[in-house]
Amino acid sequence: AGHSVTVYERNDRIGGLLQYGIPTMKLSKEVVQRRVDLLAKEGVVFKTNVNVGKDIAAKDLYDEHDAVLLCTGATWPRDLPIPGRQLDGIYFAMTFLESWQKKQMGNNIDQPHLHAKDKEVIIIGGGDTGCDCIATSLRQGAKSITTFEILPEPPGKRSKDNPWPQFPRVFKVDYGHEEVQKKFGSDPRQFSTLSKELIDDGHGHVSGISPIATYSTSKQWICVISYGWIRCDMVLLAMGFLGPEKYIASELNLTLDPRSNYQTPNGRYSTSAPKVFAAGDCRRGQSLVVWAISEGRQAAREVDSFLMSSSTLPGPGGVITVVSQKG
After folding, report:
1. Are strands 206-216 and 193-200 parallel, antiparallel or unpaired?
2. Which residues are within 8 A (CB) of 116 and not within 5 positions of it... i.e. 6 or more apart?
3. Which of 15, 93, 97, 221 is the 20 to 30 Å CA partner of 304?
4. Residues in domain FAD/NAD(P)-binding (predicted)?
5. Which of 174, 220, 20, 190 lies closest to 105, judged by CA?
6. What distance in Å separates the CA atoms of residue 148 and residue 152, rounded to the nearest whole number?
7. pTM for the predicted model, two decimal places
8. pLDDT digits over 210-245, tens only?
9. Which residues does residue 200 pair with via DSSP β-bridges, in sequence order?
10. In angstroms, rounded to a whole number, what is the distance separating the alpha carbons of residues 85 and 73?
11. What DSSP state is assigned to residue 317?
12. Distance from the Cα of residue 159 to its chain's centroid
């Protein structure tokens, strides 16, 4: 649209979750870099290793620019407040995935404790992130891999209370589950399982986890029986995210929605602060790459409209609205 655009990134490479959160076997980093290079050739300025709100004040950027667009992602991980959480060997999923991705890309990463080789790994949480941890642990040479999922095992086909066009809540096998099944002979998922306590090996390192089996009714979760404990050397927490980290919102005095995301009223992209916009996971919650693409395009259109009073950038679905003028 002709505006001067500067991107501030707190990590050492551009790409965010696409660069360091999604493993290479799922998304080639050559694809990510190709897009970054195209943007750079178009004139976008990238500044890495700049943590806005800490290395540089968000208020300074606000004062120096005509518009600010927040695309910070939902990077505040959900924790597991149970006995033993302070033990060594327990990591957030993104810390584990980012460390491995950086090492693959040539960074000088010397963190053997973040490597799953010859370890008995337990991953708490399902979803895409949990599956990526499964597949990464397998490639690193884990001795065993088990995943705890709080929800019951989904049915093989749609239930009567899940009709089309609702999203089908059915049993699915993703790439990580299939790979583990081929190597170890069984699906790594253990459904209807809550984590009760993390066990100390006597030296401050995790050596096991005590789970509880559960089942659900339409109104509540009910504990059935305790399993005792299951041995492990590494625990990865992949239980989702609680929205964006709060320091930029605090500095710019932004209103958050009930899910702790940046509030953008009426489904638009403008926040509660003048000339500040938000897009992506930090606005709508953690989601898919296709949503990131759509959100970025539509937020850019709204910023352009704010700056120029109108915009010729494509609307939803890539449609450019042509206004006919007569006389």
Report:
1. antiparallel
2. 136, 137, 140, 141, 142, 234
3. 15
4. 47-296
5. 20
6. 11
7. 0.89
8. 988 776 655 565 656 566 789 999 999 999 999 999
9. 206
10. 25
11. G
12. 29
